[in-house]
Amino acid sequence: MDSRLTLVVSVVMGCLVLTVRGDGHLSNSTGSSDFTFLSVQPLTGVFNRTGCGVSKLCVEQPTECNPATNGTCAFVSSALSSVNGTDIAFELRGESTGYIALLLSPDSQQGNDKAYVCANSNNSVILTTALFNNSALTPDNTLPVSGALGSVSGNIIRCSFVASGLNATASSARSADTSFFVSFATGSFSNGVLGSPAVQLLSNRSLDLTNASSNASPSSAPTAPPTTAGGSALLHPALQGLVLLSMLILRLF
Ligand SMILES: *[C@@H]1O[C@H](CO)[C@@H](O)[C@H](O)[C@H]1NC(C)=O
Ligand SMILES: *[C@@H]1O[C@H](CO)[C@@H](O)[C@H](O)[C@H]1NC(C)=O
Ligand SMILES: *[C@@H]1O[C@H](CO)[C@@H](O)[C@H](O)[C@H]1NC(C)=O
Ligand SMILES: *[C@@H]1O[C@H](CO)[C@@H](O)[C@H](O)[C@H]1NC(C)=O
Ligand SMILES: *[C@@H]1O[C@H](CO)[C@@H](O)[C@H](O)[C@H]1NC(C)=O
Ligand SMILES: *[C@@H]1O[C@H](CO)[C@@H](O)[C@H](O)[C@H]1NC(C)=O
Ligand SMILES: *[C@@H]1O[C@H](CO)[C@@H](O)[C@H](O)[C@H]1NC(C)=O
Ligand SMILES: *[C@@H]1O[C@H](CO)[C@@H](O)[C@H](O)[C@H]1NC(C)=O
Ligand SMILES: *[C@@H]1O[C@H](CO)[C@@H](O)[C@H](O)[C@H]1NC(C)=O
Predict the structure, then answer these.
(1) Which pLDDT does position 191 carry in this prediction?
(2) Where in the sequence is the signal peptide annotated (predicted)?
(3) Residues whose beta carbon lies within 6 Å of some atom of ligand 1
């Protein structure tokens, strides 16, 4: 595969983690135990930042954190994996004893967003797809996924997969629209039930998952110093407030 055609959007999330608290019981009322999980092949080795901004789009928190290490790092990468522009390879890495999830939204509203969930099942990764509707994940088995790999190391979950059929455009004639607001979430997972997701990382604008430098700030070149690379598009203050608010709400339960 031509690496230039391969866009990896890596979203690393981590520092805000309150971890999952108190949301296990919420999930019962959502009746969300109807998820169909795919077992995935073991991910051997770890992915890293090589290619970020060049051959893959990386979104992470804290800024520039390396998904290959054991430190705090919430990371998502994306890479175009087919010439028709709708198959996109993702890498996810984050800390959770339950699950980590990639959320893709065509707009800044959270509703009916696509979710790709990698869960720790007895120290193996299993994967499911879902809709993220306001605060809950609901099963959606219509999102094609292939080539999934995963590993669990302590509380670190890593997974990679190829998603097909991503198309953010609802009304345009463009051949494929691969631009989404990118979020990362964690939640609890037990007895097949996914707890409510705590969103930890949000891009403050739509990012083209097939453009390795689409999160570069307008004023800086793709080869800008490390301090401006990965996290530049993260957490607009208003969205940060939303995240904190949602965390507060979770804690009330
Ligand atoms: C969750 O719902 C199931 C089925 O309604 C019920 O049997 C179970 O006791 C509930 N669990 C909790 C923790 O409420
Ligand atoms: C990153 O991962 C790639 C692919 O596994 C590997 O070839 C490369 O040496 C790694 N880079 C670093 C800095 O570890
Ligand atoms: C990360 O933790 C795992 C499990 O404890 C260990 O095997 C591995 O060597 C650690 N890696 C680094 C880079 O410290
Ligand atoms: C894109 O290409 C892949 C592989 O060639 C194919 O499996 C997939 O169905 C194609 N997707 C669309 C939307 O044409
Ligand atoms: C988890 O793994 C342990 C040790 O291999 C095994 O005894 C246990 O049955 C497994 N639990 C599930 C739910 O698979
Ligand atoms: C999502 O939420 C909206 C508004 O609450 C509701 O109308 C819709 O049916 C929900 N969709 C799913 C798939 O749950
Ligand atoms: C994306 O969606 C738009 C609007 O539904 C459609 O016109 C376009 O053909 C779609 N692109 C792909 C590659 O499916
Ligand atoms: C990728 O994104 C950057 C930053 O938004 C933009 O300047 C550049 O034109 C984009 N490249 C392509 C091929 O769309
Ligand atoms: C997104 O956040 C970055 C870094 O905080 C900021 O430079 C940029 O102006 C923001 N973009 C928008 C559209 O708010």
Answers:
(1) 86
(2) 1-22
(3) 25, 28
Residue among 33, 8, 3 at smallest CA distance from 215:
8
Determine if ligand 8 sits within 6 Å of the CB of residue 167. no
Q: For domain 3-252, is the CATH number 3.40.50?
A: no
187 and 102 Cβ atoms separated by less than 8 Å = no
The phi-psi region of residue 197 (left if phi > 0; otherwise alpha if psi is between -120 and 50; otherwise beta) is beta
Report, in this order, helix, strand and coil percent for the chain, each rounded to 5.
15, 40, 50
Environment class of 228 (CB within 10 Å of its CB; exposed 0-12, middle 13-18, buried 19+): middle
Phi, psi of 192 (to 5 degrees): 80, 5
Q: State pLDDT tens for residues 57-92.
A: 999 999 999 999 999 999 999 999 866 657 899 999
Strand partners, 105: 181
Distance CA(179)–CA(47), nearest Å, equals: 23
pLDDT computed for residue 2 by the predictor: 39
- DSSP-based three-state secondary structure for 244: helix
CA–CA separation, 242 and 249 (whole Å) = 10
Closest ligand 2 atom to residue 51 Cα is: 1
Between 249 and 61, name the one with better pLDDT: 61
Q: 141 near 129, Cβ under 8 Å? A: yes
For residue 203, the ligand 9 atom closest to its alpha carbon is 1
- Is residue 52 over pLDDT 90? yes
Domain segments of the chain: what residues?
3-252
